[in-house]
Structure prediction request, 179 residues.
Amino acid sequence: MRNCKLRMVLCVLFACLIGCLSAQEPTENQAPSNKVTSQERFEREIESIKEEVVARVENTFSEYDTNDDEKLSWDEYREIYLLRAEELKKSIEQLEAQNLEVPEELIIRLRRAESDNPGIPEENERREEFTLMDTDEDEHLTAEELTNYRIEQIDKRLQMRLQQELDAKDSETEEVREE
Prediction:
């Protein structure tokens, strides 16, 4: 009888021990807890804020950055850069109003947007060439004809640059003669 009581006590203690251990560590068979920790909540909030900021920036610039800008004239393209500069100025002013440090990247973007020659001239030439090539009329051209056209465009640009250099040298020699 005494052995029976001892066994029951040991079984109850063993069951309690197993219950306590299983409550502390979830096993593979148990479903994970649905409780959300404060750290997880914090990480989710940070992610949502990042997504919101990215979406806001994309929306701001998508008003100006469209696929149609290859067809824009230089003046229209310049106007877009001025609008961007205004947006950047507003962002910088907001940061300064809150006594926050203005990132160097914003200042560089503002200078680039305010400059007289936004973008790289060679890039603009390539854009113009692409716009000329990207028409419905060129669909009938063969790859060889397209290549020849591109070679002609490059030759024209090189000739123009050479002519500009020659003109610059001529003007320098005239200035030297006058002096």
